UniProtKB/TrEMBL annotation:
<keyword id="KW-0949">S-adenosyl-L-methionine</keyword>
<comment type="similarity">
    <text>Belongs to the class I-like SAM-binding methyltransferase superfamily. RNA M5U methyltransferase family.</text>
</comment>
<dbReference type="InterPro" id="IPR041698">
    <property type="entry name" value="Methyltransf_25"/>
</dbReference>
<feature type="binding site">
    <location>
        <position position="271"/>
    </location>
    <ligand>
        <name>S-adenosyl-L-methionine</name>
    </ligand>
</feature>
<dbReference type="InterPro" id="IPR030391">
    <property type="entry name" value="MeTrfase_TrmA_CS"/>
</dbReference>
<dbReference type="Pfam" id="PF13649">
    <property type="entry name" value="Methyltransf_25"/>
</dbReference>
<protein>
    <submittedName>
        <fullName>Class I SAM-dependent RNA methyltransferase</fullName>
    </submittedName>
</protein>
<dbReference type="InterPro" id="IPR002792">
    <property type="entry name" value="TRAM_dom"/>
</dbReference>
<dbReference type="Pfam" id="PF01938">
    <property type="entry name" value="TRAM"/>
</dbReference>
<dbReference type="InterPro" id="IPR012340">
    <property type="entry name" value="NA-bd_OB-fold"/>
</dbReference>
<dbReference type="InterPro" id="IPR029063">
    <property type="entry name" value="SAM-dependent_MTases_sf"/>
</dbReference>
<keyword id="KW-0808">Transferase</keyword>
<feature type="binding site">
    <location>
        <position position="324"/>
    </location>
    <ligand>
        <name>S-adenosyl-L-methionine</name>
    </ligand>
</feature>
<feature type="active site" description="Nucleophile">
    <location>
        <position position="395"/>
    </location>
</feature>
<dbReference type="Pfam" id="PF05958">
    <property type="entry name" value="tRNA_U5-meth_tr"/>
</dbReference>
<feature type="binding site">
    <location>
        <position position="300"/>
    </location>
    <ligand>
        <name>S-adenosyl-L-methionine</name>
    </ligand>
</feature>
<feature type="domain" description="TRAM">
    <location>
        <begin position="7"/>
        <end position="68"/>
    </location>
</feature>
Amino acid sequence: MQNASDSSLVGDEYEVEVGPVAHGGHCIARTEEGRVLFVRHTLPGERVIAKVTEGDEDSRFLRADAVRVIEASKDRVEAPCPFSGPGKCGGCDWQHVKPGTQRRFKGDVIAEQLLRLAGLTPEEAGWDGTVAPAPGDKLPPGEVPAWRTRVQYAVDAEGQAGLRRHRSHEIEPVDHCAIAAPGVSELGIEKRTWPQMATVEAIAATGSSDRQVILTPAPGGRLPLVELDKPVSVLRVDERDGGVHRVHGRAFVRERADGRTYRVGAGGFWQVHPQAADVLVKAVMQGLMPRKGEMALDLYCGVGLFAGAIAERVGDRGAVLGVESSKRAVEDARHNLRDLERVRIEQGKVDQVLPRTGITEADLIVLDPPRAGAGKQTVRSLAALGARRIAYVACDPAALARDLKYFSEAGYRPRTLRAFDLFPMTHHVECLAILEPVKKDD
Ligand SMILES: C[S@@+](CC[C@H](N)C(=O)[O-])C[C@H]1O[C@@H](n2cnc3c(N)ncnc32)[C@H](O)[C@@H]1O
């Protein structure tokens, strides 16, 4: 993002020694005058020329790209993707870093957030400090896990699909995304033009051959006749109300996890890494250890992933209540779990639905909120239900740490914490905290 003010420092260059990794895919450095820089495309310990990309004289910190490396870290590699680098595609943050070191960086960020926002050391959080790769993602040097089963391409004025540059509306033209799953790459979105379109989202389901393309026309744009080499369903986003409508084929894709098939309608949430749903279900079940006859809540339940897994385990005498705000996802969840009689799905926001249900206690709770986390009020009302264990699935370690602090104030502490690298090459990381009530004599 260019800063146009008179005091803009965009374009200025500083030679700096690079400090630690910070949350967001950059490292911290200071200029000789003491200005704080968030520098991308570098690693801790490097000496680089950092060119300012955002900020002015009055900014608390400046954003910058390392445009020249003077002293390289031993953990630096040549980025396997030619579209990665200063000013290019903004999708990946760590292409230039060895995969094991990427995971170490993510671990450093989690540790820093836990300490700063929750006052927890790794030991106190029940975490061994590691970030586990997804099964199959440990590859020979130079090879990149092709994990993105959902890719949103932006389309330029000529109808060419590309990927957005970092913090920008500008588009980097690409002929292939290195981290796109094979099912997405095979659709060849980059190989044809998309006149009058603003974005094209490609989805390749896991465990079924379903492929889907969701088109968003540019303002006033008309839908093109879409003919791809592969069988694919096509949907379009209505620019007036944001609704997603079927053009041809199915209005959903079928995903598989934990031995069940889940229908996911357009725009509905499903984990992007093909192993993620299985990895998380397994870890949540290991952490909660559901018992026959227990009553569980699956909050922010999407299309019912954890509700389905828990319901199978608590059996006919148990019960599961799922809560989800998206109407479409609720329809899918009810359809997906229709064989499980003791599952009920309620539509609405967690903080509004829970009081309405009249539920005053639960044995187990899973919550998997969006990036912002659950927040103080919701955490308090969950703690009041007295669950013997709570599984908190988090895609943002900062939000997790904030909510862990609220849980601690409400009498829950982490029993274990695990972290998974379900977004290789990017700064994103998934965490799972299993919480339990603090005992009186603790
Ligand atoms: C990270 S997704 C998790 C979905 C599901 N647990 C899964 O793994 O597939 C978060 C979900 O929460 C829903 N959501 C967002 N805000 C919500 C709220 N305040 N109350 C209930 N659901 C919400 C979103 O629609 C989305 O489906």
